[in-house]
Amino acid sequence: MTTDTSGAITAPIAGQDTLQKFIFDNAAVRGQFIDVSHTWQEVVTRHAYPLAVKKVLGEMVAAAALLSANLKFNGSIIMQIHGDGPVRLMVVECDSDLRLRATAKLDTDAEIVDGATVPQLMNANGKGRFIITLDPADKVPGQQPYQGIVPLDGDDMATVIENYMLRSEQLDTRLWLATDDTTSRGLLLQKLPHHGGKAEATPVSEEDALDTWNRAVMLASTLKEEEILATDIDTLMQRLFWEETIRVFEPLHPSFHCTCTREKVGNMLKMLGEQEVNDTLAEIGHVGVNCDFCGLHYDFDKVDCAQLFITDAPAEVLIPPATSIN
């Protein structure tokens, strides 16, 4: 196994999450290992989710970072599941710096058993939808985010995303994801379009490239969930691909980051309308907003709310509909 020009795989910094990219030499196959456990702990400590919900949401956190790392634009990927089961909404957002936040919205009377599958949680009546939105940070006037919407097809999160990538991006993608209360890790492999070896010093036939892809998938498929949770990235890479010639790049470091601000919350209240805000003021004397991602509380009194509606500046919805208001 080869490494980058530094001659060694860079060890992760203590306390940091790690995303490790690699490619197979002379074959159109790329991969990424991720350990996003510190970010996941930031998410899970803010919410008392049932075990089955934590498993799916934690896998979404790892998957969102893996997909985001392959994007070539300045902006965010927003991964959502709109469900028709006891879980109504799951959202994970990851920007181009691999800063993540995540939340889930459950029915008030939801009863969720350990081991519940994605269909049981969010596709009870076959109406669940999986959505990926690409939202550029530097949009030109009139530009809308790209959004892909597909049925919620799969018994687990890895299968849902694999089906989405094949259907929407026509890109063979395989994922292995694992999450518990403290750890969230994963592996992504993608088969890239084969160009006949024109760019390589040693041309590779399409048949050989396909053999490499099949071998990589076969090796990765030997991973068990317990093994992924208990084993660090370097060890997993050595264990799986020690006979392969791969090139490893400098690691990236995902982190938890919530983008909520008082200004954005104010914009959301403006979108709700002056009448609804005034009704809340009349009832309880203030408007309180809790960010469902990080739990931060924003409070607006009568003077604050009056100032919101003085300006004619357009309001923009930047806080998702899961945010609670009281």
UniProtKB/TrEMBL annotation:
GO molecular function, one term: unfolded protein binding
InterPro entries registered for this protein in UniProt: Heat_shock_Hsp33, Heat_shock_Hsp33_C, Heat_shock_Hsp33_N, Hsp33_helix_hairpin_bin_dom_sf
GO CC annotations on file: cytoplasm
Record keyword Cell membrane present: no
Hydrolase recorded as keyword: no
Coiled coil segments of this chain: none
GO biological process, one term: protein refolding
Any Pfam family the entry gives: HSP33
Domain of life: Bacteria
Keywords: Chaperone, Cytoplasm, Disulfide bond, Redox-active center, Zinc
UniProt-recorded name of the protein: Molecular chaperone Hsp33
The species this protein was found in: Janthinobacterium psychrotolerans
